[in-house]
Specification:
The chain is an all-alpha fold and 113 residues long. Helix content is 58%, strand content 0%. It has helices at 14-20, 27-39, 43-48, 66-89, 91-105. The longest helix is centred in the last third of the chain and has 24 residues, at 66-89. It starts with 13 loop residues before the first helix and ends in an 8-residue tail after the last helix.
């Protein structure tokens, strides 16, 4: 899966990490990166793309079909499985991948200090 490979194979310096994530890269940052990895550039973004519909303003209407949610959950589960396998088989590569994902997508997300 292309999302499980980091852009760089070089370790990220502690100084760069501290600059991007003041107080250090923590469990919440890892959770944010896992979430981004599981859902970014996939079925969820395909659903999100396109024009807004007035129907979306009516909370009594469903916004997603059973097939769409099934596809989202299967895709997210497969992506997480790939990362968890990477964590077990290559912890350093897992760490680089997670940090890379966090740097690309999550720097402005809510995080715990």
């Amino acid at each position: 899966m292309e999302n499980s490979k980091p852009i760089t194979t070089e370790p990220i310096s502690e100084e760069s990490l501290e600059t991007a994530f003041p107080g250090g890269f923590n469990i919440r940052d890892e959770a944010n990166a896992l979430t981004a990895h599981a859902f970014r550039n996939g079925a969820l973004e395909e659903l999100h793309a396109g024009k807004n519909s007035p129907l979306l303003d009516d909370p009594s209407l469903s916004r997603i079909t059973d097939e769409e949610i099934k596809r989202l959950m299967i895709e997210a589960s497969e992506r997480l499985e790939a990362l968890l396998l990477l964590r077990e088989t290559s912890p350093e590569e897992y760490k680089r991948t997670i940090i890379d994902c966090a740097l690309r997508y999550c720097r402005k997300w809510q995080r715990n200090a």
